[in-house]
Amino acid sequence: MESLKEKSKRAEKIVEILKKLKGMPYLSVHKKDSPFRILIGTILSQRNRDIMTEKASKKLFSKFDNVEKMANASLKEIEKLIKQSGFYKTKAKYIKKTSRIILEKYNGKVPKDMDKLLELPGVGRKTANCVLVYAYRKDAIPVDTHVHRISNRLKLVNTKKPEETEKELLKIVPKKYWQVFNELLVNHGQTVCKPIKPECYNCKIVDYCKFKNKNL
Q1: What DSSP element (H or E) covers 31?
Q2: With a threshold of 0.85, does the pTM exceed it?
Q3: Nearest alpha carbon to residue 108 among 33, 34, 36
Q4: d(CA 213, CA 211)
Q5: Which is the most buried residue in 10, 102, 177, 211, by most CB within 10 A?
Q6: Based on the number of CB atoms within 10 Å of its own CB, is 90 exposed (0-12), middle (13-18) or buried (19 or more)?
Q7: How far is 172 from 10, CA to CA, in rounded Å?
Q8: How many whole angstroms separate alpha carbon 22 and alpha carbon 12?
Q9: Domain segments of the chain: what residues?
Q10: How many CB atoms lie within 10 A of CB 72?
């Protein structure tokens, strides 16, 4: 079991890493948007490359930009618009069902509660946490593939699944940093610490990483 001293040292390491990442120039990976668009955009991002998510979201929201329009859209039309997204037929069903539930059960407003969000079709913990953080500025740590990969590379956690990573991060990341943790690591994962051929030579936190200089 981790001692208080060890836990404190890990927390200090996390703060050092986040401060270094904060000092790097980057574009926000989560644009300010409505809770509904954040929810649907995150569903589209599941098992999908970032660039394809952005293209699919842009097409979908150009036609159906609010919950009422989305709930009343035909399944075939949603499928056609998000075809660039992986598993698009399944996602189209989730999007339509979720939109209908939000419209009818929650008067068109996306829930602010984790348990209620998890009841929506296609919504897991990552998606729910993204809504809580980016739509409602609630304290949570969304864990996607970037956060899971980088947290393990940095030896902050030793986990196999994103759900395990979230559980461990909630224990060790100081709460004041929960809301920024996802965005900082996602940006770093998109631009530097990539899944294949990470740019270790361009990494400001390489000294903390167990994979450092592997590609030099």
Answers
A1: none
A2: yes
A3: 36
A4: 7
A5: 102
A6: middle
A7: 7
A8: 15
A9: 4-28+141-208, 35-135
A10: 12
CATH code: domain 35-135 is 1.10.340.30
What whole-number distance in Å separates Cα of residue 119 and Cα of residue 98? 9
Whether the Cβ atoms of residue 122 and residue 132 lie closer than 8 Å to each other: no
Would you say 29 and 187 are in contact if contact means Cβ atoms under 8 Å apart? yes
As averages over each run of 10 residues, the pLDDT of the chain (216 residues) reads 75 92 65 88 89 91 96 97 92 98 97 97 96 96 96 94 96 94 94 92 92 63
Enumerate the H helices of 23-161 as residue ranges. Answer: 35-45, 50-63, 67-72, 75-81, 88-105, 114-118, 125-130, 145-153
Domain range 4-28+141-208, CATH architecture = Orthogonal Bundle (1.10)
Which residues, at least 6 apart from 131, have a Cβ–Cβ distance to it below 8 Å? 35, 38, 39, 42, 110, 117
What is the chain's alpha carbon radius of gyration, rounded to the nearest angstrom? 18
Q: Which two tokens stand for residue 8?
A: 């404190």
Gap between the Cα atoms of 86 and 33, Å rounded: 23
User: How many other CB atoms are there within 10 angstroms of residue 149's CB atom?
Assistant: 19
Q: Please state the length of the chain.
A: 216
Tokens of 196: 């294949």
